[in-house]
Amino acid sequence: MPSYMVVKILDSRSVVFPSTRVYGDVELRPYKSDTSYESELLESSANQNRVDYNKYKFCSRVCTIVFAGSVEAALDIAEDKFTTVLDLLSVNYALSLLDFSPVGYAKDLHSGEYTKLITNQSSLTQTYLVDAFCGQGFDDVNFILSLDNDLADRYLKSLHWSRNAKRESNQQLRILFSWFSLEALLKEDERDNISGIAKWFLGFPNSSGRNAIDPKILQALNKDERYRSWNDVIAKKIDEIRIFRNDSVHSGFRSCDFSTQELALYDKITTLSSARCQHAVKVALMNKVQTVSEFKEFVPTIFEGRQGLVNDVLNNIVFMLDKVME
C-alpha cells in the first residue's frame, strides 16, 4: 500500500514551536525545516486557497506518515492523528486555538509526487515558545498517548468536545458541547447522574465523600458569604443544565425559554466544570488510575490535593459566577 507524508501548517493563532517535537507518530516542526521546494509548494497552496502566505509562513508544521490507497484517504487518516495530539496540547495552551490553516501538501513517498492541499480555513492568540533546553522530554502528552485504558479514552473524547465548545460561537451549542465533554469523561450509563461530580470540582463537595475532606478546607470555604450562597443553588443550576441538555437534544432549541442571563450562567458553569473535571481526570491518569469507576472512588482525594484550592474556588469560580449574575 502506498505511503504518504501529510504536512499541514497550523493556524496563525496556534502555538509556534521553536524546535521539532514528536508526539507518537505526529511531528510538530518549525518553518525552518522546510526545503526550498517545500516552501514554494506551501506558498502555492496558500495562493490557491486565496490566503496570504506571509500570515502562515512562520507557523509550525504538523506532519505524519500514513499508509493509504489514495491522497484523500491519507488526509483522513492524518487528520485523525493530528486532531488527537492537538486535543491534548489544547489543555496546555488555553489562550491559543490549536487548529489547521488551509495550507499544506501531501507527498507520495513512492513516486515522490507532491499534491497541494485545499482545506477549510478555521480560526484565540498566537503563542511563541522559547526552549529552555535542546532535548524534548517525555511529557504528559506523550504519557497519555501511551496509555491504553478506558479513562484515557474518555479523557481524549472529552477534550475533543471541549475544544469544539471553545470554537463554537453559538452559546446554546457551546453549553451542549461542554456538557457532552463532561458526559464523555464521567458518564458510565444512561442512568448515571454526573451532576454531583461536576459540583465537586466546581468547589462544592457533596454526598458522603464530603466527610473525607479536611474540616479546615470546608471552614475556609464556608467563611465566604458568596460561597455559602452559591452552595445553596449550584446543584439546582447544574440539574437545570442537565434538563436543558435533554430538552435541546430531544426537542430542539428553544432560546425563548431562557433569559440571556440564564444561558450565560449555564455557559460559565459548564465551561468551568468541564475544565476542572478534565484536570482531575488528568491527575488520576498520571497516578495510574485506569477506569472512571476507580476515578470516582478518588474524587475526595483529588479534590483535596488541588493546589491553591480555596483561592481557586473563591477568587476564580465564585468570582466568575457572581460576575455573570451582575
Task: Jot down its keywords.
two-stranded parallel ribbon; alpha+beta; 6-stranded antiparallel sheet; 326 residues; 2 domains; 8 strands; 52% helix
Q: Can you describe this structure in just a few lines?
A:
It is built from 12 helices and 8 strands.
Question: How are the secondary structure elements laid out?
Answer:
Elements: E1 3-10, E2 15-16, E3 21-23, E4 26-29, H1 36-48, E5 61-67, H2 71-90, E6 100-108, E7 114-116, E8 127-128, H3 140-145, H4 150-167, H5 171-186, H6 195-201, H7 215-222, H8 225-251, H9 260-286, H10 292-297, H11 299-304, H12 309-325
Parallel strand pairs: 2-8
Antiparallel strand pairs: 1-5, 1-6, 3-4, 4-5, 6-7
